[in-house]
Amino acid sequence: MTLILFENSQKRRDKLVIIAEIVGIAKKGTSKTHIMFKANLSFSQLKQYLALLSHTGLLEKSAYNGRDIYKATQKGLEFMERQQQVMDLLNEDVHEHRNGVKTPPLIFNTFQRS
Length: 114
Prior knowledge:
The chain is α+β, with helices and mostly antiparallel strands. It has a domain at 15-92: Arc Repressor Mutant, subunit A. The protein contains 4 helices and 5 strands. The chain has helices at residues 15-25, 32-38, 43-55, 74-93; strands spanning 30-31, 59-64, 67-72, 96-98, 101-103. Strand 2 and strand 3 (67-72) form a beta hairpin. The protein starts with 14 loop residues before the first helix and ends in an 11-residue tail after the last strand.
């Protein structure tokens, strides 16, 4: 019997996945509206995550032309990289077998944004 932790069809995202996704979106600096739409968050969720990420030093906020811009810090980029390493490690060991055929692991949705 194989235990499957998460599948690509998963509707809900883990908070750590959302945090890493936000950091990835803000790599080069962006507005909160852009983060909200790219990360598919409500405005209230966005406010909570931005407060947490700013407080923990994963994002920094600055002003540009009268708008707040959020940019990933070095600490945020390191978090994102380590979180991806953990996902990769889990993906190496968990495989689903169907009809005796080994298929690619379906543990996490990856977020590869530039």
